[in-house]
Amino acid sequence: MKVKIVYDNKALPGFKSAWGFSCFIEHNINLLFDTGWRYSILKYNMEKLGISLDNIDAIFISHSHWDHAGGLKKLGFKGKIYVPPSSNLKGIKVEKGEFLPNFISTGEINGEQSLIVRNGDKLVIFTGCSHNGLKNVIRIAEEYGEIYGIIGGFHDFKEIDLLKNYKLVMPCHCTKLKKQIESFPNAIECMAGKIVEI
Ligand SMILES: [Zn+2]
Ligand SMILES: [Zn+2]
Predict the structure, then answer these.
(1) Tens digits of residue pLDDT in 154-175
(2) Which residue, 2, 90, 117, 124, is the most exposed by fewest CB within 10 angstroms?
(3) Of the bound ligands, which one is closest to the alpha carbon of residue 68?
């Protein structure tokens, strides 16, 4: 499984940065997680990473905030878009559980859903802003198996020592204690343009 960071507050040289988040998960299904804010930046970074609309099998939207779903409309994706039930976005309202093979929604909490991807016996969690509380997300993911890593926004999650238990943590946009988490040996700095193999 390969994860490409498409949209983040920070970017590698040659990529554009802006407030928001999106990543592309290449697995048995190629899924775009969130779409950032500005379509022009989403498109620019997607092209740089070699992602075209034809490569995307499905889109998963964590929550309808502009910095996560802003780029969606202009993207003009015709396939399946999985959205949280309370959102006004057009798409399939997804409940807790496996909605595509190996792709599991935590279900919506506080307007937001997170994604759990099964990679053999490894579970990787993808979060938008974590308005749903990272602790809640972790608790739900544990029902499905052992957590290998977490990628995305961790919001104001404070029990950061818990994150040392995982093989990989990648705190992205919207993480209050980003600097502290980035000092952990299992942490990878999040930036648009980064590719992580799991
Ligand atoms: Zn956000
Ligand atoms: Zn948000």
Answers:
(1) 999 999 999 999 999 999 998 9
(2) 90
(3) 1
Q: How many CB atoms neighbour CB 52 within 10 A?
A: 9
Are the C-beta atoms of residues 11 and 36 closer than 8 Å to each other?
no
CATH of the domain at 106: 3.60.15.10
Q: 155: which DSSP letter?
A: B
* 163 residue type, one letter: L
CA 25 to centroid of ligand 1, rounded, Å? 18
The domain of 176 spans 2-197
Q: How far apart are CA 130 and CA 150, in angstroms?
A: 11
pTM score of the predicted model: 0.98
Tally of domains in the chain: 1
The total number of residues written for the chain in this structure: 198
